[in-house]
C-alpha cells in the first residue's frame, strides 16, 4: 500500500516537555519504532507538525537584536530540514541499510485571495503583554490576539492548493524511497506580481496539507497519527464514546472543535470523499492495527452512519 502518515506534534514533543534537542530526538525515536513496523511491503510518505519548533526559532530570533527575525516561510523551511534529519536517521537505525530516505523541502501554494488572510487566527511565536504586543503590531504590521492574560501574534491559515514538489515525491516513491515532506503543512508560497513565486507569512494546517498530499499521490490510505486512540463523541465526559468508523458526512455533523480534533476530521473527510479511500485517525502506537483495520477512527465513503467501539 501507499500510505501517507501525518505525525502530530506529540511525535516530536510531549506536552509540558522542555523543547530540547534531546527530547525531540527521543520522541522521534519512539515514532520511528512504530513506523518501522509497517515499512516492509509498503510505500511510505511522512508529514509532520512543526509548531513548537517554529515558535522556538521565533523566540531565538527575538533574542538577537542585531538583525530582524527571519520570516515564517524561512523558519518553516529550517524546521522541515531539522525534523526530517531526525526522522531519517532514527528510521535508518531500524530499517535495512538498503532502504533509501529523502527529506524534501516542500513549497505549498496558497491563494492570495483566500479569506483567511482577512481573518488571521493562527497564534505563533512568544507571548507579550498587551502594551508590548500593540507596539510590535504597529512597528511590524502584525495582527495580534489575546492568549489568556497575554497577547500573541496571529497569522493567516490559508488552505493548501498545490504541492510544488509532488513530482519528485512520486519519483522517489517509485524507487522505493521513504519520503519525509510537507512538514508543518509545507512552506506557504503564492504567486505575486509578474507571476513570481514567493513566501508568505502564514501557516498551513498540517492535516489539510497531508490530505492534499495523499490525494495527489493517489495514496491507498491516510493515517492521521495523534495522541488519542480515536475520535470521540462527548470527549472528556462520563458518556464519551470512541468512533470506530464513520461516513465523512456524518462525522462532520458532530461539530468537532477547530482547536483540537476539527482539522483532523476535516482532512480525513476530504480525503475519503475525494478519493474513495480510507483515512484513519488514531494513536501512533496503534499504527500496525490501524493498517489492519483494527484500530482508530476509520473515515470511509463505503459505509453510512457511525459505528462505535
From TrEMBL:
Family the UniProt entry places it in: Belongs to the carbamate kinase family.
TM regions (residue ranges): none
PANTHER family in the record: CARBAMATE KINASE, CARBAMATE KINASE-RELATED
Domain Aspartate/glutamate/uridylate kinase: 1-281
Pfam families, per the entry: AA_kinase
A single cellular component GO annotation: cytosol
Keyword Kinase: yes
Matching InterPro entries: AceGlu_kinase-like_sf, Asp/Glu/Uridylate_kinase, Carb_kinase
Record's protein name: Carbamate kinase
Superkingdom of the organism of origin: Bacteria
Coiled coil (UniProt feature): none
SUPFAM superfamilies reported in the protein's UniProt record: Carbamate kinase-like
MF GO annotations: carbamate kinase activity
Record key words, sorted: Kinase, Transferase
GO process annotations (BP): L-arginine deiminase pathway
Amino acid at each position: 500500500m501507499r500510505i501517507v502518515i501525518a505525525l502530530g506534534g506529540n511525535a516530536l514533543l510531549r506536552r509540558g516537555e522542555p523543547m530540547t534537542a534531546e527530547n525531540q530526538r527521543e520522541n522521534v525515536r519512539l515514532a520511528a519504532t512504530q513506523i518501522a513496523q509497517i515499512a516492509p511491503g509498503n510505500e511510505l510518505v511522512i508529514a509532520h507538525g512543526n509548531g513548537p519548533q517554529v515558535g522556538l526559532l521565533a523566540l531565538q530570533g527575538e533574542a538577537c537584536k542585531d538583525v530582524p527575525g527571519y520570516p515564517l516561510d524561512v523558519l518553516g523551511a529550517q524546521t522541515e530540514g531539522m525534523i526530517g534529519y531526525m526522522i531519517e536517521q532514527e528510521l535508518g537505525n531500524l530499517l535495512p541499510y538498503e532502504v533509501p530516505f529523502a527529506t524534501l523541502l516542500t513549497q505549498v501554494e496558497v491563494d492570495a485571495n483566500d479569506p483567511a488572510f482577512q481573518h488571521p487566527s493562527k497564534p505563533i511565536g512568544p507571548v507579550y503583554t498587551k502594551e508590548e504586543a500593540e507596539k510590535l503590531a504597529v512597528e511590524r504590521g502584525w495582527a495580534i490576539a489575546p492568549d489568556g492574560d497575554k497577547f500573541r501574534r496571529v497569522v493567516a491559515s490559508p488552505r493548501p492548493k498545490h504541492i510544488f514538489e509532488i513530482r519528485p515525491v512520486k519519483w522517489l516513491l517509485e524507487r522505493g524511497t521513504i519520503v519525509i515532506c510537507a512538514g508543518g503543512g509545507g512552506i506557504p508560497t503564492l504567486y505575486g506580481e509578474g507571476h513570481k513565486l514567493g513566501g508568505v507569512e502564514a501557516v498551513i494546517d498540517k492535516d489539510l496539507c497531508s490530505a492534499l498530499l495523499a490525494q495527489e499521490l493517489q495514496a491507498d490510505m491516510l493515517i492521521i497519527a495523534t495522541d488519542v486512540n480515536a475520535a470521540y463523541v462527548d470527549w472528556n465526559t462520563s458518556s464519551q464514546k470512541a468512533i470506530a468508523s464513520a461516513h465523512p458526512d456524518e462525522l462532520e455533523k458532530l461539530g468537532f472543535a477547530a482547536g483540537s480534533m476539527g482539522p483532523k476530521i476535516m482532512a480525513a473527510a476530504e480525503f475519503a470523499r475525494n478519493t474513495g479511500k480510507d483515512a484513519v485517525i488514531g494513536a501512533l502506537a496503534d499504527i500496525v492495527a490501524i493498517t489492519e483495520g483494527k484500530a482508530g477512527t476509520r473515515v470511509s465513503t463505503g459505509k453510512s452512519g457511525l459505528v462505535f467501539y
